[in-house]
Amino acid sequence: MPAQPRRLARALAVAATGVTVLALPLFGATTASAATPTVATATSLGYANNLDGWIRASLQVMAQHGIPGTYNGIYRNVLRESSGNPSAINLWDSNAAAGTPSKGLLQIIDPTFNAYHVSGTSWDPYDPVANITASCNYAAARYGSIDNVFGAY
């Protein structure tokens, strides 16, 4: 091959390699974003976005992870702890005074939520399904089931 075409071939090969190197991170980033797992919510699991749906969705996730509990046990504790308000926060008790207020439907503190978080749910303690599921996981470890909880826990 004469010198002129060889230089052109080499220049194209270098250019093509540069394009490939630049394209790989773009394709990798797109693929990684698409692989982000779905977080279980009441609506993503086919339930209404209300207390009934949040409890039913939580029970479905709990069953997948072997966490005991019943609808009635969860419902009773939610009504006592937050009156069904997923945005409830306790700013006056000893936990709040220590800087870790109780949050959400079942009034769980952040360290307990983080320790008993259940995979597949949100890491937001105000998320109803995540809050119920983590709280029930904690209650199962501490009391055998949320059904055995009849007061602040």
Overall residue-averaged pLDDT value: 85
Elements, N to C (H/E): HHHEHEHH
> Helix tally?
6
Stretches with pLDDT under 50, minimum 5 residues: 6-33
Give the strand order, joined by hyphens, for the main sheet. 1-2
Helix content: 55-70%
**What is the alpha-carbon Rg in Å?**
25 Å
Structural class: mainly alpha
Strand content: under 5%
> Kindly, what is the distance between the CA atoms of the first and last residues, rounded to a whole number of angstroms?
83 Å
Count of DSSP strands = 2
Q: What summary fits the major beta sheet? A: 2 strands, antiparallel
Shape: globular
Helix and strand layout, with pairings?
Elements: H1 3-34, H2 51-65, H3 71-82, E1 89-90, H4 94-97, E2 102-103, H5 110-116, H6 128-143
Antiparallel strand pairs: 1-2
Would you give an account of this structure?
By secondary structure, the chain is an all-alpha fold. The chain has six helices and two strands; from the N terminus they run αααβαβαα. The protein has a two-stranded antiparallel sheet with strand order 1-2. Helix 2 packs across helix 6 (128-143) and helix 5 (110-116) packs across helix 6 (128-143). The model is unreliable at 6-33 (pLDDT under 50).
In short:
With 153 residues, the chain is mainly alpha-helical. The chain has helices at residues 3-34, 51-65, 71-82, 94-97, 110-116, 128-143; strands at residues 89-90, 102-103. A two-stranded antiparallel ribbon has the order 1-2.
Characteristics:
single chain; mainly alpha; 153 residues; 2 strands; globular
